[in-house]
Amino acid sequence: MNKVELIQTVRALLADNKGLLAMDESISTCNKRFAALGIPQTEEMRRRYRELLVTTPYLNESISGAILFDETIRQQKSDGTQFIEILINAGIIPGIKVDMGAKPMVEFPGEKLTEGLDGLPARLAEYSKMGARFAKWRAVLAIGEGIPSKECIKANAQALARYAQFCQEAGLVLIVEPEVMMTGNHSLKKCAEITEEVLQTVFEQLYKQHVLLEGMLLKPNMILPGLNSKIPETVDGIAEATVSCLLKVVPKAVPGIAFLSGGQSAELASARLNAMNKQYKAELPWALTFSFGRALQEPALEIWRGEDANTVKAQRALKHRADCNRAACMGNYNSKIEQGFWQEEDGNRR
Ligand code: 13P
Q1: For the chain, first and last CA: distance in Å?
Q2: 334 C-alpha to center of ligand 1: Å?
Q3: Is 345 annotated as catalytic?
Q4: Consecutive 10-residue runs of the chain (350 residues): their mean pLDDT?
Q5: Where do the structural domains in the chain lie, given as residue ranges?
Q6: Ligand 1 touching residue 19 (CB < 6 A)
Q7: Which of 18, 97, 136, 219 is catalytic?
Q8: Span 3-341: which CATH code?
């Protein structure tokens, strides 16, 4: 492991209040999103969509890194240029999702354990040779009647820590993503309790496996009520609950926390990230940024709908969301910035 290089890559990912674009949906997840909009679910359509994302003009102004999927890291633009090369030339650091997905956990109904440790060192070596500088592993924890169990939390944390060790050995920065899901009718308080327990268990395991905390990013959920919860929560309430949970369990040595969006609307995700930075940035030991998938891509995908004629407008929508979230990292996001895109429908770059 080259510690200096790992730390430099993490710093580059966090520099200048930028964040990450998660474009690492598995084939089945990407197909589901395409199906909902009537887009054909073929490899060529997925390639065209990812080409739209990676060729978005000036995306590097707000995006420091992009997380790719195995299919995508091997794909090229229509002129033959590898996507990974396009990203590197644009000043965006390429990363790769390396887990093989969350699978039902045997004997634990309703719970999942992320797989992908078998053969991981060889895959990491291949991705690193291709140009990837960081990796991501996602664990999912659902809240429900009697779940998540302690066994599920621990098994996922152990897998995350093993992945972390392999990554570090391969010289890749690691993103540790234990996602407590939004699905359900649980309260904000319940989400806070479970997230705290999950993160505490994850850091215990990382510590036991001698993981270099300075060479990682944490990618957690925000503290939110379940999607079916009837209790309304304010943006400030969510910001306060999220920051106080993270302060209890995330060591100071971790340089940055890059949130997943988890099914929040694009605007709410920006507003909540903004509130955290606006109110607490000065007193936090780590940077708070974004590593959104849906909250960055959804507006662009809805505009594109598989039609080349919509590509430029879809790219502008992606760039706009990236800019809104960079503003949120500085605590500067507001309704004027949000509406800026729609006021400039003339096609001029803002
Ligand atoms: P969302 O922001 O859509 O939750 O995606 C982030 C991610 O990387 C999921 O693994």
Answers
A1: 42
A2: 23
A3: no
A4: 93 98 98 98 98 98 99 98 98 98 98 98 98 98 98 98 97 98 97 98 98 98 96 96 98 98 98 98 98 98 98 98 98 95 51
A5: 3-341
A6: no
A7: 219
A8: 3.20.20.70
